[in-house]
Design a protein that fits this description.
Strand order of the largest sheet: 3-2-1-4-5-7-6
Helix content: 40-55%
Radius of gyration: 16 Å
Number of strands: 7
Strand content: 15-25%
Number of helices: 9
Distance between the termini: 36 Å
Order of helices and strands: HHEHEHHEEHEHHHEE
Largest sheet: 7 strands, mixed
Structural class: alpha/beta
CATH topology: Rossmann fold
């Protein structure tokens, strides 16, 4: 099945609120757990950059798991960042350590790196040009930077995408069901991501299938 692009930005307030209120605890908590499992030597203190943070669920989960980190979380949607700030507001410690920034790659103006950790979850499939993400990893990382990219993976057929939508989004609001289906069609296959990494000079990174709908990319920059 060929990739079908979807809009890069989710700017509607109602859609952003739907994502903010959805329960993604199972995959999002697993992403952070896998990151810490794969990099047990992660420095206890540092700076992290979250690219395409959306309403900030993974940002906050990482912040709680790594209390020594200050985090810059960037997204191109003002509506998503509004929800991210709202959900962070009750937690003084997180408010002190997370800075949400409006910006759209590759032109976003962000605090200079290198960062110790770079995260990107459910962001890659939104990009018409995936090299935007991998170039940002290069731009904001440095020697030893830990990188985690988690995303959907594209099914082989439209029929499989529909089955996955029925299985995992049947009880979700219509906007989330529709977006999940479209996101599956817009996602990349593991082979495509591996080719992207080689083109970006990140061939040492690993690409793993971690569920029937998710892939997980991890690695450490060495230059």
């Amino acid at each position: 099945m060929k990739r079908v692009l979807e809009p890069e930005l989710m700017t509607e307030r109602a859609r952003a609120r739907a994502y903010a209120e959805a329960d993604f605890s199972e995959p999002h908590s697993r992403y952070v757990a896998l990151l810490l499992e794969k990099f047990p030597d992660l420095p206890p203190r540092g700076r992290a950059l979250d690219l395409g943070c959306g309403p900030g669920d993974v940002t906050r989960r990482f912040a709680r798991a790594c209390p020594g980190y200050e985090i810059v979380a960037v997204d191109g949607s003002p509506a998503m960042l509004r929800e991210a700030r709202r959900l962070t507001q009750p937690w003084p410690d997180l408010r002190a350590r997370i800075r949400y920034r409006l910006g759209r790659l590759p032109g976003a103006r962000l605090p200079r790196g290198p960062y110790d950790v770079i995260l990107a979850t459910s962001f890659l499939h939104h990009l018409a040009d995936p090299m935007v993400l991998w170039n940002a990893v290069r731009q904001y990382g440095g020697t030893g930077t830990v990188v985690m990219v988690a995303d959907l993976r594209r099914p082989r057929t439209v029929q499989e995408a529909r089955r996955l939508t029925e299985r995992y989004a049947a009880g979700a609001p219509e906007v989330l069901r529709r977006d999940f289906y479209r996101s599956l069609l817009a996602a990349f296959t593991p082979a495509e991501v591996s080719a992207q990494l080689r083109a970006a000079g990140l061939g040492g990174f690993t690409v793993e299938v971690i569920s029937d709908r998710h892939l997980f990319v991890s690695g450490r920059l060495n230059e």
